[in-house]
Amino acid sequence: MAGLALPTAAAVALMFTATGAAMATSPKTQSVTFSQNATAVTTAQPSPVNPAAHPAPVDPAVIRAQRAKAIQHTLAVVRADVAAKANRSALVAAGVARSNQRKALAARAQQAQQAQQAQAHGWRLPVKNYVLTSGFGFRWGRLHAGEDFAVPIGTDLAAMSTGTVDFAGPESGFGNLVRVRYWDGTISYFGHMSSISVNVGESVAAGQVVGQSGNTGHSTGPHLHLEIHPNGGQAVDPLPWLAAHGIAP
For the segment 223-241, what is each residue's pLDDT rounded down to a tens digit? Predict the structure, then answer.
């Protein structure tokens, strides 16, 4: 027929292929295809992520803040330890200072006590401005048991150390006599006194006036007759005894 073109072999093949494709897209075929695709999609889904295996990144600012907090805590602990050690050192130093202060006070108290004892137990001559006229020894066939200190009548006579008046009054050849028993047991005799200023049992200190010199009793002139009786026993030569006690005339 004129004007009509017959299909070529290639066109026939193309038509056959299209028809086959249309047949492949039938409802039943589509169902199988979708099922296979769903299975493929399901199989291709990725596995869930393990948070432990892949931790989330931490903000550097948070890390810096944590480090700063840790450093501050460490510094606080160190400061507290230093403060505690300083406090203990201060307490120890204060204790040592108090101990030293107590020792110093005790030492001063002991020194004061020793000074008081030295003053109380010190010795002095009983009279000043004297002349030695007659010493210890035998005279006219009898023992002159003392040392004579010539002084004007009315010269003050003083206790030689701390003691107690053992006798005060007239006594035979001594005239007016004062006996003083001192702290170490020694007894002194002051003879030929013109007046007496103390009473028996009275406590006296070194240098305390006990009376005045005179010329009473068996006397050849105004003077102090001094006798020394260690421990209240027999009289001894006064001059060596005075020298031994640091008060040699």
Answer: 999 999 999 999 999 999 9
